[in-house]
Amino acid sequence: MHQPYPQHPYVPPAPRPRQPVFDSGKMRRGDWVVIGLYTVLFIFGAAGLMAMIPGFTEAFNDQESAIFGVNMIAYVVVFTAAIIMGFDALRSSFATFKYYPWVKALAIPGAWLATLFIGAAVMVTLGNPVKSENQLAIEGMTRSVPFLTMFVVTALLGPFVEEYVFRHLLIGKLSRKINVWVCVAISVVLFTGLHFVGAGSFDITSAVPYMTLGIMMSVAYVLTGKSLAYSYILHVFNNSVALIISYTLLPLFQL
């Protein structure tokens, strides 16, 4: 008589890890302080009043350096407030890389390239590509401001401030009350419009790079579980590449 084969209990496969959604929390008093500082210094242009302080402009070698000095002080002030309020959210949201880490790592340069090609295609379709005054100002500063100093402000401090305001607050926290994709639309429009504050004009062609960048970072923020860390890294990568090009390749075409 044959012995029956032993019956092994069925063990279902382990479920694949699911992307967590990071809780942005409710608006706090400190968040309103960050928004207030950002609005007053950058949107209303109060940061420019520093140039009226006797001896301030004369302390710099040229006008471009003085403008950079104004922006640097303003960004340091807002960054300090933002990092105090957002450090825990930034630290905890790095956990997004525990889920499909290679996909997310490769998506950083991949999303940047896709944004570059899409933006270029749209600009060619619209015709007559025009650089925004914001971009022209940055290019002017690269001729006067050392790379490392520009990198700290433009690729590290500035991106965190903008990601905290436009993604963490306008999408993460606002989506507690409004549909998240409506919040994405609000964020993209305001992010794009910010780069034309004080310009006195708006050109749709020159707005395309900022619009595509805003869409890319906002969608990435949502798809990675509202990860402030991921959108910040994307922004740092974008600005770092742009700065490297501005300091190395751009001067070759201006000779």
UniProtKB/TrEMBL annotation:
Entry annotated with the keyword Protease: yes
InterPro entries xrefs: CAAX_protease, Rce1/LyrA-like_dom
Keywords: Hydrolase, Membrane, Protease, Transmembrane, Transmembrane helix
Domain annotation CAAX prenyl protease 2/Lysostaphin resistance protein A-like: ranges: 147-240
GO biological process terms on file: proteolysis
GO MF entries: peptidase activity
Transmembrane segments: 32-53, 65-90, 102-127, 147-166, 178-198, 204-223, 230-250
Pfam families, per the entry: Rce1-like (PF02517)
UniProt KW Protease keyword: yes
Stated name of the protein: Membrane protease YdiL (CAAX protease family)
Organism per entry: Paeniglutamicibacter kerguelensis
Lineage, opening ranks: Bacteria, Bacillati, Actinomycetota, Actinomycetes, Micrococcales
